[in-house]
Write a structure and sequence with these properties.
Elements (H helix, E strand, L loop, with lengths): L1 H13 L1 H34 L8 E6 L17 E2 H10 L3 E17 L2 E10 L3 H4 L4 E4 L4 H5 L4 E5 L3 H4 L9 E4 L2 E9 L8 E6 H8 L5 E2 L1 E6 L5 H19 L9 E5 H44 L1 H9 L4 H40 L16 H27 L3 H6 L3
Parallel strand pairs: 4-9, 6-8
Antiparallel strand pairs: 1-11, 1-12, 2-10, 3-4, 3-7, 3-11, 5-8, 7-8
Helix pairs in contact: 2-9, 2-11, 9-11, 9-12, 11-12
Length: about 425
């Protein structure tokens, strides 16, 4: 093996410039493949990050406006979900596991002494923490006792701490919102993309204070289990609409009366889109790499031509065709792998640098579209496999040509 490597090294040294230029094309091809794959990964991570810790098997549902007259009622009637609908979900649909609800109360001002801050109140049930992935930094979330006893408790966003309680522990302290005092029981991380900080209060308390105890909810969120096909999901949604239509007296076929947002369907749609993007990226990247492979194949053909007489002497001395094939393929793989590895390292470094810069950049408002454009281990292994296969492909034709040389013709060959 040592003699084989020394022979390959001697061959490369005789053709330094040609080998370097050909190797550059390979390095550039794998570098661009790494950049494209990293960028595709960053786009995927950015879009999927908007799901956060949200349960992927969840469905969001809320009331809308009827678009059809029904049972003596005119169209354009407002449909509002109520606490009764939450019980229907819990008791009449075996596929439903957890049920939660929200009601929003915007344009509020929270005060503590002489300090003030804008806040959006959100009346929620305890299940919201689990379904929507609310991250508690300190203290706790709303619990069933808060709901049952109509407690005036609140879970504030972390961003409010320095505004209302600078240098102090907010737990157990009181804040005043629209004339009502709430006790802080927890702090949640919040979302930097939201314009105003959010405070969670018990849904029952919000309904009592802001809705005169009217059991209205703005939306319900629930998780489902055992629905593993599109047909089952379609059947479930049809049965759910029919039951709510009977409860609120609207046409079961009126989809605008109640809106549904299926997180699983959104996730599946995103996965299909990014699967197509990933395939497109591989096609473009491999096309770029193909130019380098052709270059390596050409240089190996030139090498075979220049060493025809040498191969004839080898055969005359008893060398087998397989040894010549092994020599050519090994040289091809080494050139491709060495320069390709350089391109891969540079591509990974470039993506890491972009990821580092994005991590230091201030987060703007709105959804994330690009995040952590780094290459994972599976992509690196795939790129390595591509390098090896590329080297074999590039060296096969020259190696086969060298092995097919007749000894007498090779010995007669004049350069």
């Amino acid at each position: 093996m040592r003699e084989l490597l020394l022979e390959i090294w001697a061959s490369i040294r005789r053709n330094k410039l040609r080998t370097a230029l050909t190797g550059f094309s390979v390095a550039w091809g794998i570098f661009m493949l790494s950049i494209l794959l990293g960028s595709g990964n960053g786009l995927k991570n950015g879009v999927l990050a908007n799901f956060g810790s949200y349960a992927l098997n969840s469905i969001d549902i809320g009331g809308g406006w009827t678009s059809k007259p029904y049972a003596g009622y005119d169209k354009w009637r407002r449909i509002r979900l109520r606490n009764r609908d939450l019980e229907i979900l819990r008791t009449e649909f075996p596929e439903v596991t957890d049920v939660a609800a929200n009601s929003w109360y915007h344009n509020c001002t929270a005060s503590c002494g002489s300090r003030f801050a804008d806040i959006s109140l959100r009346g929620s049930t305890p299940e919201i923490e689990r379904i929507e992935g609310v991250e508690i930094v300190r203290g706790r979330f709303i619990n069933p006792a808060d709901m049952h006893d109509y407690r005036k408790t609140i879970v504030i966003e972390q961003a409010l701490e320095p505004l209302l309680f600078p240098g102090e522990d907010p737990l157990g302290r009181s804040i005043l919102i629209r004339g009502t005092s709430y006790t802080v029981v927890g702090v949640h991380k919040g979302d930097a993309r939201q314009r105003n900080s959010t405070g969670y209060i018990p849904l029952t308390t919000g309904q009592l204070i802001f809705k005169a105890n009217d059991p209205i909810v703005d939306n319900a969120v629930f998780t489902v289990e055992g629905i593993d096909t599109d047909a089952r999901m379609e059947d479930f949604e049809k049965r759910l609409r029919a039951r709510l239509a009977a409860e609120h007296t609207f046409d079961p076929g009126d989809e605008s009366a109640v809106w549904l947002s299926n997180t699983m369907e959104q996730y599946k749609s995103m996965s299909v889109v990014f699967g197509g993007i990933n395939l497109f990226v591989w096609i473009i990247g491999l096309g770029t790499l193909l130019a380098g492979i052709v270059g390596v194949s050409n240089i190996m053909l030139v090498t075979v031509t220049e060493r025809t007489a040498e191969f004839g002497i080898r055969k005359a001395l008893g060398a087998k065709p397989s040894s010549i094939i092994r020599l050519i393929l090994t040289e091809s793989v080494l050139i491709t792998a060495a320069f390709g590895y350089v391109g891969l390292v540079l591509g990974v470094a470039a993506m890491e640098a972009v990821g580092w810069l994005l991590g230091r950049a201030p987060q703007g408002e709105g959804p994330t579209v690009f995040l952590d454009p780094t290459l994972d281990l599976s992509v690196a292994l795939s790129a390595t496999a591509v390098l090896v296969v590329a080297g074999l492909v590039a060296g096969y034709v020259p190696a086969y040509r060298a092995a097919q040389l007749k000894t007498i013709d090779a010995l007669r060959y004049n350069k």
